[in-house]
């Protein structure tokens, strides 16, 4: 069964699959949370001719984030939780390339999925380019990319691009009613608004019960927070636990809410754009520096309050 919004992608893929000459590299482009990785896995199974229920297939190679360092790799090998690297490393690409020197195991086709390709380190991108320029016979590449512009132009030029559209609010609402039936209306609506058409993001917001955080953030950006009371409430909603996935979701939510404001700003929303850049910076630093959740709440609230005040002055 295809996910919502994938019909055109499947039509394009299956048309090529049934054609005389299949393109060797595909760029699956679109916002994070649209199901591109799920599409890649299912498409790879069709490519190598295996049923959906079949287990791991030796001719489907998936390249994604690995352990952060040797210590984390040892934890993985011991079956323990481990921290992931922030990018795909050149050694990972080279390991895949070594495996491509042999023929496919069970047929005459093999799929290599890179997810997300736009998080490859520079050395990894350059190494992959060589394989895209001279692809091994029977090997097809599927590159999942949330921000295709971050890929090398030479990589993009060698790929056939399939774009995945965001979903409408109506589609998102129907999906959340099906997949998260216990979510209250306020949480569901806040998650839909903040996710901006990404069902994966919306489900993440619902699962982490971020409806209250969304309401507080919108109130701060619309009305300000002179006495810091709303920022205190936001800190309480976020909680004191150092839960990195939850904090990342909170930061994603803040950026989405700010983006709504940018869309409705006046002719010169520079302060809003600057604030969005600060939130992007904070999101990137959070996994590394492990900021205190209370401080994250205060910084988010301060940025949103300042951006809201700037846009009011601009529009008023």
TrEMBL record:
InterPro entries: DNA_Rep/Repair_Clamp_Loader, P-loop_NTPase
A biological-process GO annotation: DNA-templated DNA replication
GO cellular component: DNA polymerase III complex
Superkingdom of origin organism: Bacteria
Name by which UniProt lists this protein: DNA polymerase-3 subunit delta
Source species: Qipengyuania nanhaisediminis
Lineage: Bacteria, Pseudomonadati, Pseudomonadota, Alphaproteobacteria, Sphingomonadales
């Amino acid at each position: 069964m295809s996910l919502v919004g994938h019909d055109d992608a499947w039509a394009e893929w299956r048309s090529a699959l049934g054609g005389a000459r299949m393109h060797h590299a595909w760029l699956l482009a679109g916002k994070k949370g649209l199901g591109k990785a799920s599409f890649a896995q299912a498409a790879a199974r069709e490519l190598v001719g295996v049923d959906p229920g079949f287990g791991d297939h030796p001719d489907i190679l998936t390249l994604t984030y690995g352990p952060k360092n040797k210590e984390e790799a040892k934890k993985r090998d011991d079956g323990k939780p481990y921290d992931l690297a922030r990018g795909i490393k050149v050694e990972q690409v080279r390991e895949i390339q070594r495996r491509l020197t042999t023929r496919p195991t069970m047929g005459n086709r093999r799929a290599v999925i890179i997810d997300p390709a736009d998080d490859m380190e520079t050395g990894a991108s350059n190494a992959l380019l060589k394989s895209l320029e001279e692809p091994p016979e029977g090997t097809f590449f599927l590159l999942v990319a949330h921000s295709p512009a971050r890929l090398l132009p030479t990589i993009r030029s060698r790929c056939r691009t399939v774009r995945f559209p965001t979903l409408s609010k109506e589609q998102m609402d129907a999906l959340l009613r099906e997949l998260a039936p216990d979510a209250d209306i306020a949480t569901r609506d806040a998650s839909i608004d903040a996710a901006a058409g990404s069902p994966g993001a919306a489900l993440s917001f619902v699962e982490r019960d971020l409806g209250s955080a969304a309401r507080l953030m919108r109130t701060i950006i619309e009305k300000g927070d002179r006495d810091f009371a709303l920022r205190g409430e936001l800190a309480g909603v976020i909680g004191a636990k150092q839960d990195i996935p939850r904090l990342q979701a909170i930061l994603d939510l803040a950026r989405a809410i700010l983006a709504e404001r940018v869309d409705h700003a006046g002719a010169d929303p520079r302060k809003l754009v600057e604030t969005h850049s600060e939130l992007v910076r904070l999101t990137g630093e959070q996994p590394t520096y492990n900021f205190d959740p209370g401080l994250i709440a205060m910084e988010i609230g301060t940025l949103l309050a300042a951006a809201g005040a700037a846009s009011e002055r601009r529009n008023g």
